[in-house]
């Protein structure tokens, strides 16, 4: 068993890591780290863990961690991991960061996060952990920059189409819908039940920090810089994230030809499911699981394509993909600890 | 007081007409017509009307209706109104049809609804009741074809931009989200609570009968035939409908210049609210009311625009707009009986 | 038209008063008072009021208010009204307080609210505004203590049974379920969407400040002091409140005999609806309206009764009842401005 | 590995068995049986199983089953199992029935289910599978009658109090709240999203078929026949079930003394969690898991007790408890395959 620590113990990302790792055969959580709640039991904040996780949370002690653990999951807000991971870069500890600290170039990070970027040498080592696309790079990485929830869903649908030269890389529109857990554990007006329930509302149009993340990694498969129009919406549900993506086709395709292509593109991947013609992904079809479901429709009237991808934002969009990456880094079966059937209904 | 009858008494459209007309100063409902439930009280189906609406539903008797009523609201499924309205065309009865029977050309109707179209002469007389756009035509109409819920939201945002030559009419994408009441009163798997709750799913991509309706009326303001890519999503809430629309700009605009333009376009309309820069419409901001809220964002990075419009699908998207049209046809204040403040929270 | 001011302008109670008074024929709101947000427009906090309520909120100026208004609605948290109402006691201003400040005896208030009580002379003048029970007293009152949401539902069901000597006054159990708006506008963990959604949880068992309120007014109809066991639950919906009440019968009754009795008890009241045998109240059947729906079942197996009452917590449980009381105090039709049909679906 | 078949393949109970058994180390599902959909893939009905369960459903063939399987889970509606289980009574196949067919005496079954009861000899062999109470009996049973969802939650809270002589067995009131999945997969008005959402409503007051089930097994721990008043409510959420139970105490107790007693009563049980004083169970705290959380409050004002228990109706209230029973029958660790941490948020 490899020993793992989780930093950012009281956020939703950490809680989901704990839930999923419970049944992992090769990883055991030996430390849960929270600066603000060190000394407390996690069940004081999360009563559902009563009697299950009885470990006290600890303050961060880098030197101790280095010696005692094999894998470090960082599930803290942006701006934390970039100050911690450098201490581990010359150790054998595998670092998997769920924040945005290592996803962008230094310039982009400064612009979109408004913070000082990570040091260039560490940034360079970080591999973007989009498990089903950068599989090989991840296998040999020591630092993983786990993708954001929206980029995971958007890029899983977009990259194959760009890579296969199927779509125009100009004029791509991504309409994203996310459950409220995407706004995290912190209280806010937009996550207040009486405001969020029975409501759909766009937010951060054109200004979401996941825009440069999507563009950066999509561009790696294109001949030019890809720019996307990206709009997020809050949906009155807890979990789930759907991206509906609109693009112009480069050549004549049918729904069937696109689905065949996608099926082949992902045929060796365990967690991407290409739906049959006439079916579209539902977030409820992946709840609690690590699947990314993708459906497509070629609109011959307008020679354009609509492609939709659904994930559980806390699993495939965060903790599940982090574990998937840990599996790849350690040469284990990629599905280890992630064999959950979606919770339905 | 003018006397009104409602056909299709047990659907959500009829129920909402009844709710809204309760406080209308110039219209009283004298007959509620339901073929399938004639003789029953409405409260047997809708207990919330207990003690409020005690009238029994009646079977349709055209001759009697002609003599007794002034306004006929038809809130039956597609295929019913086209067989009823012709009997009233030479009378003084004002007909307002909430179904799709008079919205399309005969050819389009056959193709998208798969039914025989209304007779050509009656079809010709019908005016498309998009109240805030076709205001003048509605004032002198005797037959109103009340718009669909999606076209109401989509066209309210699109027509000003096309009319003012602001956007390219190619490559328009409409991403629509609707509450489950849009699926009506009939039981179905997609409207089953355990399936619909905690779920977002696209449906009828590229095949929704509201597509030709949007295209037909948008085209009237363009130099060419407008084609749109239109995708609808079911959202786990009861009421509310949001369209997020993506288009390319024709010339350089800013968010402020577009909002100013829209503000001016709608300045004399009571029910369209253009939101200030940085704000986007929330369906909860219009629940239970006849407002259509519109917000816009010009993405200078991609020279494109995102415009979003929110309505209550059962009010502005159906019964409220029907009453708005009745007000216009009769020369009353357009807000009569529709002065409801949105129900919040 | 009488002029009204609302104190506590940014809470849900005030917002609902504004919504409902919009269509009242005899009351116009001339001032909205908020100490914390004086000078701001209400729509800055509540965008759904954009273009509808454009009045700026003002700071409290008692002397000015005395001269300018006829009716004062106080919708502030507990502890505010008791310091304001005394200034108005020698004026002709009618005061209607929606907080708990005047509902209990001084001793009870100290014990359950942990604050200094209102001065005894003002407290004495306040009439408990349970509109359908204390109708006559309300008509001649100058200060109304508007009931809490739970007491409104609970007492509307209980008082007739106690008054008619139908039930044992020992062993009464009240199981209450409320939508999350009952927790108010303030952010809290229990009202955080991701915590509250898909969840039912009891809270404040045996410790809710509405317990002494229920007991005090129920006791007025009994020969002894009534004690109740009262448990509240948060339900994942925005509006609505249901009380399910369990009691032992004093003599032999059937469901029909109890329903007949209740029907007669409330026969002259506009807003209490006694449901027919076999039907039980649904919160959705009263949403947005001032109705209180009551159903009952006599369990002959255990010689006990189950009686359930449903209200909209923000209407009948707060703002609607306050307006009902204003109507009674002014000799207007009790339904004035409250003729709303429930919003369904 | 033992081989299992599931009868009633397309109901929620069967689907949950499939989800949970996926990770069970000693049970593999070799047959899924559905009379109505034999020959179809389960994913045609449940797209979330796409690519996971690819087995075709089969028609029932009793003789074949006898030879091929070790454990038979019956998850069909009432009236099916009683005709199937007799064929297996002389075989080594362990039968676990999730329906009501074997829970009541013949007389009770006739009265409450309105059907012919199971044959007396088979009925006699069936052991009531309330895992944490009848643990020893279950270990040596060959036919298990798995409890209903409400009785599971209600009896888990009640039996210890009756068994320990803590409460009066007269005047017990059980107020139950269930998520809509409790109404099953079948379409119905009460499970229609637009009707069920934003709604709480009592149903089947005094007439639910779980009443005699609760009374029968509670009575086994009492000196007399226990009668309960039992009311169920539909809550707008998918999963989760909460029972709030009211009873009079027999002697003086404090909240602490009751909680200590319960803690001790269940100390060797893995899936019952007694919450600390001041905490009450939330359905969200057990979602997706096999836990039953119990909290209590002694109201010294009325010498009564409020005890609340929360379960996931589809896990502990159905499939999870069935697997728990299979574990007990086979001498495996009782938590095998059920080690899921609740899904939160």
TrEMBL record, chains A, B, C, D:
<keyword id="KW-0521">NADP</keyword>
<dbReference type="InterPro" id="IPR000534">
    <property type="entry name" value="Semialdehyde_DH_NAD-bd"/>
</dbReference>
<keyword id="KW-0055">Arginine biosynthesis</keyword>
<comment type="similarity">
    <text>Belongs to the NAGSA dehydrogenase family. Type 1 subfamily.</text>
</comment>
<comment type="pathway">
    <text>Amino-acid biosynthesis; L-arginine biosynthesis; N(2)-acetyl-L-ornithine from L-glutamate: step 3/4.</text>
</comment>
<dbReference type="InterPro" id="IPR036291">
    <property type="entry name" value="NAD(P)-bd_dom_sf"/>
</dbReference>
<protein>
    <recommendedName>
        <fullName>N-acetyl-gamma-glutamyl-phosphate reductase</fullName>
        <ecNumber>1.2.1.38</ecNumber>
    </recommendedName>
</protein>
<dbReference type="InterPro" id="IPR050085">
    <property type="entry name" value="AGPR"/>
</dbReference>
<dbReference type="GO" id="GO:0005737">
    <property type="term" value="C:cytoplasm"/>
</dbReference>
<keyword id="KW-0560">Oxidoreductase</keyword>
<keyword id="KW-0028">Amino-acid biosynthesis</keyword>
<dbReference type="Pfam" id="PF01118">
    <property type="entry name" value="Semialdhyde_dh"/>
</dbReference>
<dbReference type="GO" id="GO:0006526">
    <property type="term" value="P:L-arginine biosynthetic process"/>
</dbReference>
<comment type="function">
    <text>Catalyzes the NADPH-dependent reduction of N-acetyl-5-glutamyl phosphate to yield N-acetyl-L-glutamate 5-semialdehyde.</text>
</comment>
<dbReference type="InterPro" id="IPR023013">
    <property type="entry name" value="AGPR_AS"/>
</dbReference>
<dbReference type="InterPro" id="IPR058924">
    <property type="entry name" value="AGPR_dimerisation_dom"/>
</dbReference>
<dbReference type="GO" id="GO:0051287">
    <property type="term" value="F:NAD binding"/>
</dbReference>
<feature type="domain" description="Semialdehyde dehydrogenase NAD-binding">
    <location>
        <begin position="3"/>
        <end position="141"/>
    </location>
</feature>
<dbReference type="InterPro" id="IPR000706">
    <property type="entry name" value="AGPR_type-1"/>
</dbReference>
<feature type="active site">
    <location>
        <position position="149"/>
    </location>
</feature>
<dbReference type="Pfam" id="PF22698">
    <property type="entry name" value="Semialdhyde_dhC_1"/>
</dbReference>
<dbReference type="GO" id="GO:0070401">
    <property type="term" value="F:NADP+ binding"/>
</dbReference>
<dbReference type="GO" id="GO:0003942">
    <property type="term" value="F:N-acetyl-gamma-glutamyl-phosphate reductase activity"/>
</dbReference>
<keyword id="KW-0963">Cytoplasm</keyword>
């Amino acid at each position: 068993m490899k020993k793992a620590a989780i930093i950012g113990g009281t956020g939703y990302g950490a809680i989901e890591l704990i839930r999923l790792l419970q049944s992992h055969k090769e990883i055991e959580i030996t430390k849960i780290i929270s600066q603000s709640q060190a000394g407390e039991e996690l069940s004081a904040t999360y009563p559902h863990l009563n009697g299950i996780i009885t470990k006290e949370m600890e303050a961060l002690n880098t030197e101790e961690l280095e010696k005692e653990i094999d894998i470090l999951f960082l599930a803290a807000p942006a701006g934390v991991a970039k100050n911690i991971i450098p201490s581990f870069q010359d150790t054998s500890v595998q670092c998997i960061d769920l924040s945005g600290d290592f996803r962008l170039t230094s310039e982009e990070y400064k612009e979109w996060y408004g913070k000082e970027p990570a040091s260039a040498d560490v940034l360079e080592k970080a591999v973007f952990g989009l498990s089903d696309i950068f599989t090989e790079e991840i296998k040999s990485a020591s630092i993983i920059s786990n993708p954001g929830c929206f980029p995971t869903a958007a890029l899983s649908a977009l990259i194959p189409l760009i890579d296969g030269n199927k779509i125009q890389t100009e004029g791509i529109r991504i309409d994203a819908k996310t459950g409220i857990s995407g706004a995290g554990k912190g209280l806010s007006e937009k996550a207040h039940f009486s405001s969020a329930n029975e409501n759909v509302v766009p937010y951060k149009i054109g200004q979401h920090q996941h825009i440069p993340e999507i563009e950066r990694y999509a561009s790696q498969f294109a001949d030019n810089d890809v720019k996307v129009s990206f709009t997020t919406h809050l949906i009155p549900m807890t979990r789930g994230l759907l991206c509906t993506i609109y693009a112009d086709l480069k050549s004549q395709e049918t729904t069937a030809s696109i689905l065949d292509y996608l099926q082949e593109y992902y045929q060796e991947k365990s967690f991407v499911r290409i739906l049959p013609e006439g079916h579209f992904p539902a977030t409820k079809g992946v709840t609690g699981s690590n699947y990314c479901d993708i459906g497509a429709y070629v609109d011959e009237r307008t020679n354009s394509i609509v492609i939709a991808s659904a994930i559980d934002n806390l699993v495939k969009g965060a903790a599940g993909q982090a574990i998937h990456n840990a599996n790849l880094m350690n040469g284990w079966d990629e599905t280890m600890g992630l064999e959950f059937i979606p919770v339905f209904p």
